[in-house]
Amino acid sequence: MSDPPLAPHPPDLASEARPDASDERRLSLGGFNVVLLLFGSLLNLVAYQTAVPLLVGAILLTGGVVSLLLPKWGGREERRIFIRLFCVYWVMAGVAAIYASNLGDYMQLNSDPGGFHEISAYKARGFRLEELRLLTEGSLAVVVWASAYDLFAELGIERERYVGILINVLAGGFTGVLALKMARHIFGEDLYRFRRLTWLLGSCGLLWLFAGIHLRDGMVLLGVTALAWAWVRFVSRPNTPMRLVQVTVATLVSLLLLPFLRAEFFYVPFAFAIAATISLILGIESNQGRLVARTLAALGFVCSLAYLLTAEESLQETFLQRNEAYTEGMYEQHGADSLGTAMIVGQSLPLRLLLGSAYLYVFPIPAWGGFQLESAYNLFKSINVLFFYVVLPFVGLGIWQLWREPARRKPGLIFCLVVIAGFTLGIAGTSLENRHLGAFFVPLFLLALVPDTRDPVAARLLQRILFVTLAAMVVVHLLWATLKFA
Q1: In whole angstroms, what is the distance from residue 321 CA to residue 314 CA?
Q2: What's the distance, Cα to Cα, between the start and end of the chain in Å?
Q3: C-alpha–C-alpha distance, residues 316 and 295, integer Å
Q4: pTM higher than 0.85, yes or no?
Q5: φ and ψ at residue 42, rounded to 5 degrees
Q6: At a CB cut-off of 8 Å and minimum separation 6, what does 72 contact?
Q7: pLDDT tens for residues 279-301?
Q8: Rounded CA gap, 32 and 139, in Å?
């Protein structure tokens, strides 16, 4: 079954009148990339007082583009999204560098980013991955950063933090490539949706944070997205034996590697397998495909459930320990009288899941809390919440259309919906940290691609939902002000 035909919309008369309109558009996009590159270069030059970061960035950008010339990996659209995201994240790395070098950003210089730079640039040599895990969480990210520091040191480049940050920028670009491949499996060669996906990935404040600050989250995002891509690719054509082999290998590799990026993510491959099971049952279109898919899904579900039941005690212990640690951290950071702490953290589990799930997408409250000159971390988070005020209506309408129109329920979209719903609840019940949820933003953004604003009906619905969303956030901020100052 294919998607229902879209409502007619007027043709692009300008493009019809000018055969070279697409060429002009490509030139325009290329010109904007050049502006981004120059602006990012200026920011990094001012921050570091040397042109060496520009050289490192040029090497990594060139290497990334060359890799996307390989058949079955790259393509014109893959190169386009990679270059755009690399340029955007390069600018944000420059913004973060200004905060660190010129404004003394304590968080970047002394907290986790400073620690990651110190250990990966100077202390990781000679340690194996398992040994590094005893010294720091995120040991796989440390190994990747350390390899980059060592490689560029051989070229005479000092072990400054811009090397590690540019690895994060590179990871962000490749995340975009994988996201585009997932969109292609779901929507086909839909350039309209590819452009929106590029906008989503390039405008998200949390992804700016992942790329621009020396944290492991950029590599966590890349690892989770790679596994999600393998599953979306499989559920799109589950009758293909080679794809079954590939997703099995990807899952086994993820089981080994994801815990070295974030310890509690050892359960992500099992959660993805269960999400794929649900998507295969609900989303397969042909009877033959449904039979094969349900057989495979049942086997995968039984295996995953057997493991989870076997490891039930250790899982409960891990979640309880993490929950206690995150709760104590929130009390220390925000205080017991914080609005979020009082209204969400201290509530019963069902209420915490409900309120916390919404809070993850509208944090921080107030939205302007991060607009200051102390930390780029808080700046990016405040920009992120404004971004989500606009994106949530797309996601909401996309989910509503999946519910109302069975023809849209492709297995890949059902997989994305189950993944983001499950991990939203899981993170709301544990850390309540939207930075952890950011690892699953690609499935969320794919749901935001469902509405087609070329359809006048969908466009009007989006406008109404956006108005309601903004009105709701005004009410929330008035409530915050009342509770804070009354």
Answers
A1: 10
A2: 57
A3: 30
A4: yes
A5: -65, -45
A6: none
A7: 888 876 545 456 666 666 666 66
A8: 37
